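Note to self: user wants both folds in one dump. Writing first protein now.
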Amino acid sequence: MKLLFVQGGTRIKKDDKENFYTDGNFNLKVWKRYMDLTDEKMTVVFREDSKKYSTEEVKKHLNYFDSSQINSIILPDLYSPKKNFISVSKRNSVKKKIEKAVSECDCVIIRSLGNLYVNYAINAAEKYSKPYLVEVTGVYWDNSWYHSFLGKVLAPQRELSAIKAVKNAPYVVYVTEKALQKRYPNKGKNIGCSDVELISLNDEVIESREKKIKAQKGKIILGTAGFVNLKTKGQHDVIKALGELKKQGITGYEYQLIGLGDESFLRHTAKKYDVENQVVFLGGKTHEEVFKWLDNLDIYVQPSYQEGLCRSIVEAMSRACPVICSNAGGNDELVSSEFVFHRGNVKKLIACLRKMDKKEMLKQAEANFSKSKHYDKQRLDKIRNDFYSDFIKNAEGGKK
C-alpha cells in the first residue's frame, strides 16, 4: 500500500550538511502514526524553507527527518518570496509533481487545507480516483486573514476552498470535538480526534502543581509556546498587557516565550511598552523539554488569533497549568469561559490575569488536569487508529 502524505503547513528545513529537519508539528512519534498504516515506505510532500540553518541550531531545536524511513518530495515554497506565487511556471511545476506523486500512490492523506499544495493534491486524487482522507486542523479564514495583507486578499478564496474540500472528502479527521465540524461540515465518514501527544497523566502532576501554587511567592511566571515570528500567535498582546499593568504599578510578572523564528518584532514591542526586563526569549525546545518548562510556569497563556484545537493548551493542562487563552478555533472547548478572552482584547486579557489569584489557580489547575485526561494518548490512539485503518482497508478494497 503506497501512502502519500501531503501537507501545506510545515516547511522542511535544511542544515549546512544537507540534512533535513521538521519543526515540533512533526516528530518521529507523529510520523509513526502514518508509517504503521502501510508496509511500504510512505512518501511525504514538503515545501522547502529557503533559509539554511546551522547544524548546531537545528539539532538543538528541530526534529531530524530520517529519509531512511520516509521518502520525501521537496518542492519550492510558492508563498515565499511573493514573486513565486505569481510565477506561472513555478506553480505549474509544483502542480505536475504533486499530480505525478498522487497518480503513483494508492491513497493520500491531506493536511492543512487552504493552499495550492493541498488543492493540487485533492484535485489529483479526484482526477485519478485515489482514496483520500483530509485532516482539518484550523480555521482557514483566520489563518489567512491574520497573516498579512496578501492573506486578507486570499482569505475568502481559501475559506471557500476549504469548505468545499471538507464537504466532499470521503474521510475527514477534525482536531476538535465541535468547533471545526460546525464550520466545515462533511458528508462522508468523520471523527473528532486531537493530534496532541501527551506524556504521563498520573496524579503526581496535580499534587506537585498544588504544592507549587500554595508555595508561590514573588513574580508570577507566564508562558506561551509558538513561533515568535508569527503575529497570529498573539504574544504581542501579552506584552502590551504587561505594559498596561506596569502603568498601574504592577510589575510582578515575567513572560517566557519558547519557539523558533525572528524575535525582533516582539523585542521591539517589549521595548515600546517598557517591559524588556519582564520578557524572556528561550528559543526552541524539544517536545520533552516543553513539558519540563510547563512545570516551571505559574500560568500558561495562549493569545492566538487562529487555532484549530491548540495542542499547546492541552499540553499545559496535562501539567495542571492554570490557562488563559483567546477564543480562537476550538480553544473554548478546553478552558473555563471565565479565562477565555476575545482575540486581541488586551483589556479582557488583563482582567483574566488580575482574576487569577491563588484560589482560582488551584481551581483551574484541578479542572484543567481533569479535562486533559480526555486527551489521554491510549484513548486518542484507538479512536484514530480505528478510523485510519478503515480508510486503508477501503483503499485496499478499491485496488482489487
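First done. Writing the second protein, which came from a different request thread.
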Amino acid sequence: MESIIKTVKQALNPAFLKQKPNRMEIELFKKELINLFDRINLKESEEFHKNIIKDFLNAVYYKDNHYINTKGRSDLVIHNDNNTTSSVGVLIETKSPANKSEMTSICKGDPCDIPNLNVKPFQELVLYYLRERKTGKNFELRYLMITNVYEWFVFDAQDF
C-alpha cells in the first residue's frame, strides 16, 4: 500500500472548504481544544485519554448529532446517527501520549516523509475495519483515525 501524506487543506473535501464557521463555533473549538490539552496526564492510561477525546468530540460537534462510544474491541466509534443502532461512520484507535513506541509516526527512513504504519494501532485499525466492513456488512464507514491526542492520523475508508 502506497502512503500519501496530505495537508489538512489537501485532504478536506472542497465543498467543506466553502463552509464558513461562525465566530461562536471557532471560540468553542479553541476553548475545548485548550481544555483537552489541559486534561492530558502522561501518568494515566489509554482509557483515560480515550474518554477525554470522546468528551472533546462531543463538546465541539457530535453531542446532538452522532453517538460516540466503544463498539466491541474498537476504542471509539462515531455512529452515523445519534443512537447505538445506527451504522458506524468513524473508527478511532487511541493511544496514550506517553506510549510513543506504539504510536504511528510520519518519520520512517530518510528522508523523513514516509509514514511508519507497521505499528500496533494501525494493525488494530485494519482488524476493526475488516470486522465492521466484512463481518458487519457496514458500507457506510467513512473514516478511520489513530490518535494520541497530540497527533491525529485520518484515513479515508475507501483507501482501505
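Dump finished. Worth passing along: The mean pLDDT is 87.
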